Amino acid sequence: MNFLDFYHMPLYRPPSEGDNVIVQATLGCSFNRCTFCSMYKGKSYVERPLAEVCADIDRLAAAFPGARRVFLADGDALALPAGHLLALIDHLRERFPRLARVSSYALPANLLRKSAGELESLRAAGLSLLYYGIETGSPELLRRIVKGATPRGMAAGLEKAAAAGMKVSATVILGLGGRRHWERHVDATLELVNRVPLTYLSTLQLVYCFTPGGVFRAPQGGQGKAQSAGNGEPLARTATQHWPPWGAPFGRAAGRPSAALRSLERDLPFLRERALHLTDQRLAESVARSEAIH
Fold first, then answer.
1. pTM: predicted TM-score of the whole model, two decimal places
2. 10, 118, 214 from 102: Cα distances, Å
3. How far apart are CA 260 and CA 236, in angstroms?
4. Tens digit of pLDDT for each residue in 175-212?
5. What is the CATH number of the domain that holds 149?
């Protein structure tokens, strides 16, 4: 099977789904306005017809008959109507007899729109893991990055998912507040992740990869300099300080840790003082590398 011809590129998935079957239930992102994300800027959002997706599933099942895990792409298959998703998952179960898990990205707005009953039905069918971008707990920063979500709305959606028995792997972005707003970013994010039911929590590092002053800085209210100077060090260390002595409220740090926290990726609970020491060590190495480059 030639995957470059099979899939509608570009194709993205969480790192932990790298060895699993990927089914493109939708193309692009149903929101696609977040200023920090360029993943689907070149794609128009399309809800693919069920018959078309089922035909893809048949081909994938022939190629990988023993697959146990399937990830539903693109940006947010949860945008699909519940009935459509249930039919799709039923077909997956028919074609993959050993199927143990179905997962998907979940935008805050689309998770919130699903009723408790719909989420329970999807979980019973096999959709058991959602990848969810919190990014920040600050209402102001959420508006600046055009996330299309509020802390209250995210908490409500995540509580519904947990009540339905779904696992949630969430991400926050280090450096999102820049040097000017880092304290607001840290405090609000820690408050949110410590009160919502998460199974996994990972960090992403904000970097500029393309033209300076591009799509991310424009909506920041003329604060490009402050934003570009941002880094993840305050959040990395402060988050570790504020974990309870018995460990974090989530089961395991996983997925995409920053360099500063890579040594902390282990089963919790762990000794907080040891975690702080490792964090400080990694931050010092990060600063030394940055100074060597510049």
1. 0.78
2. 21, 16, 36
3. 7
4. 888 888 988 999 999 999 999 999 999 988 877 554 44
5. 3.80.30.20
